[in-house]
Amino acid sequence: MELDRESLRRQLGKYKFRDLTVEELMKVNMSYPNFKFSMDTYVFKDNSQKELLNFTGTIPVNYQGNTYNIPIRLWILDSHPFAPPICFLKPTPNMEISVGKHVDAQGRIYLPYLQNWSHPKSVITGLIREMIIKFQEELPLFSLSSSDEAQQGELLAYISKITQGISDMNSKHQENQRVNKVTVVGGGELGIACVLAILAKGIADKVVLIDFSEGTKGGTMDMDIFELQNVEISKDLAASWNSRVVIFTINSLGNSQTYLDVVQSNVDMFRELVPAVGHYSPQSVILVASQPEVHRSTEICL
């Protein structure tokens, strides 16, 4: 669709460098006529808002011999072209974001071209070209097929078995299911209890216990001595690789600790470990287990 220059100039009445921005957007429209332009409210991280021009459309990305139309949305700041656009993926309902080095979980796009933006060398068409190149290396979206949706339902059912005490040890279909690996983080009493409960229910093909404590003692030592089948004890979170479920056991309240101390220790733990879990098991579900006496602190932490 051909872009109307005068209409665009009127919409950009509050832009500091309106004419420069209009000229650049006309060139974008020539190269990518499928983009649709509109004025909308953009909410910044500090919750401030501003009416900005944005455009949405698809860019062709060739990945492993197939061409995919990747939907994107670019917000043009009122200081353009001296400031780079804010770029996002715009997935449809049947698409899911594949978090990577150029895309975060919210779909925000990060590229060297944006970081090194410098007028007049940097232009939107050049940005889109680099976007296509980077997405050819690492596809940022994937479609959720009917089988994916079925797997999602299966995963939720599996979580229910862990949290609600349902056992499918004798399930006729268990041998046809993919390997169910569960990781428990924390070698204290609660961690040991989680491992034993999962083993008793027969709902995991492998259980990994991550124990960061100094040395090996107590319940962890007992488990190591008896060499329980399908249980691995490790101090390296990399052992959790490809887990279906990761259970974090909340630090309990010590004699000399306040609830605030416990909350802070748990917050520190999550900040350190959750990104690593996301790296080793990006498709996993994280559960948090707490003892009754720290229920208040757990609520605050979450």
Structure description:
The protein has nine helices and eleven strands. The chain is an alpha/beta fold and 302 residues long. It folds into two domains: 5-143, Ubiquitin Conjugating Enzyme; 146-301, Rossmann fold. The strands form three sheets. It has a five-stranded parallel beta sheet, covered by helices on one side. Strand 8 (206-210), helix 7 and strand 9 form a beta-alpha-beta unit. Helix 8 packs across helix 9. The two termini are 48 Å apart. The model is unreliable at 165-178 and 294-302 (pLDDT under 50).
Number of helices: 9
Percent of sequence in beta strands:
15-25%
Q: Helix coverage percent of residues?
A: 25-40%
Which outline best applies?
A: elongated
- Could you give the order of the helices and strands? HHEEEEEHHEHEHEHEEHEH
Tally of separate domains: 2
The largest pleated sheet is described as: 5 strands, parallel
Compute the separation of the termini in Å. 48 Å
Low-confidence stretches: 165-178, 294-302
How would you describe the oligomerization state of the chains in this entry?
single chain
Strand order of the largest sheet: 9-8-7-10-11
- Classified in CATH, the superfamily of the largest domain is NAD(P)-binding Rossmann-like Domain
> What does the average pLDDT come to?
81
* Main CATH class of the largest domain: Alpha Beta
Query: What's the architecture of the largest domain in CATH terms?
Result: 3-Layer(aba) Sandwich
Rg on CA atoms, Å? 25 Å
Number of strands: 11
Predict the CATH topology of the largest domain: Rossmann fold
**What structural class do helix, strand and pairing data support?**
alpha/beta
